[in-house]
Amino acid sequence: MKTKIVIAVALLCFLNLPLRAQDRPNASEADRLQNLEHAVKQLQQRNSQLEDEVKHLKARSPFAPVIGGEKQPTAGNDNKAVFAAPAPSPGTVEVHAAGPEYKLTLGGYVQMNYEDGDVSAFEGRFGLTALKDRFRLRRARISITGDYTEQFDFKVEGDFEQSDAAVTAISKVTVKDGVVTTTTTSTSNRTQFSATDIFINWHGIPEANVRVGQWKAPFGLENLTPDTLIYTIERSLPTGAIVPERQIGAMVWGKPLTNVFPDEKDLLTYYGGVFNGNGRNFNNNDNNEFMYVTRLELQPFKGQLMGQESYLKLGADYFHSRDDAGTNISPALNLRVGPDGSLSSFTLTSADERNAFSFDAWLRLGRFDLIGEFLEEHVDGREVNGVPAMPSFVTNGYYVQGSYFLLPKKLQAVVKWEALNPGQFGNDGIHSITGGLNYYIHGDNIKLMANYVHTWSDFREARPELGGEDQFDEVLLRMQVVF
Q: pLDDT for 153-178, tens place per residue?
């Protein structure tokens, strides 16, 4: 196209020059020829420059970074930063993606806690498993996400900070006269990097995405809500005790109404996954069987209600797993009931079969949010290879959480009531009430959180001979920065 324009301009100039020469009666024939040759030479030079530019553009990959530096870093997906390549200057070094990513995003976040009082008592950490006042680097994560034009996306994320589950492990479990005794030991006293999410996702068909790798199994609303978006500093005890957390496996998920009813695409979302079932960062399965997890989400309403932006979301989950002896079915360290009523990690003493389900609802009405969830898990012992079956039990729990923005998008008040029934002894329940304030300095990217938690132990209240307290109090403060 550019070549055709150049030829047209040349012809116009060629026709115009003789006419302009006729206006100069004193100009000689030699002068006119000299002017014409000069004009042709300029057109040839310009044409050569345009041809070089066209060759350069054709040689560039369609995935090459945009050069020019006209854009500054901007907020990308999941509140992370996306950077456009700056204009190169003499002597500088350019960095480009090794693969043909359409978009490459670097991000992460840091959450720093101050915890005072009966630390983590609401998680069953009292008595033998009690923790002391502390500053806690709760999470320090960095991630890389990318999109390909071939309809693939990926995420690689890791955490520089260990959770309490990585620091404390069960070294000995004994049963005598129906009483379970546990001995805890510290397995690490330092911070180390470990993988959290590592997956590849094909999104070519919105109705049927395919994901493989490691991520949170699709079970539990609070579990699936990102760490940076939950309204209380820590998740509820029922969530920590029952949900399967991160697993390695494969999943199909999608929004089946995307193309049939585009305006109602968020009405229904489904997830169905198959996983090893023995936690994250374990490439070996504990047996030849898998964990099966499903979730169904329904959003029957989204729009204006009483003049305010509102929606209603409903969810239901189910998982099934058959595990071998020695499998840790509670990585969060809060399922096995100790002799003093405290909770710790549950490592199976025999093979088992687990079935769990949950139901959740989320109502938003302008500044107000009401969230509730009920979870239940059945753990049934199995005799395998002559190893006697462990006692079966049923664990269930729930939480109800309300929040309201006292100052729109700035100051938020939160109240949560939660309860867990471990189901291993009579009166072994734990209940907590949490009150908190969240101050959004720059949305969720920079946020301050403060919680006060009061906890009751039914186990300790019913057994005064144990001595010690049966009610506990804790104050938690958090500074969150997302980058």
A: 999 999 997 767 544 444 344 545 54
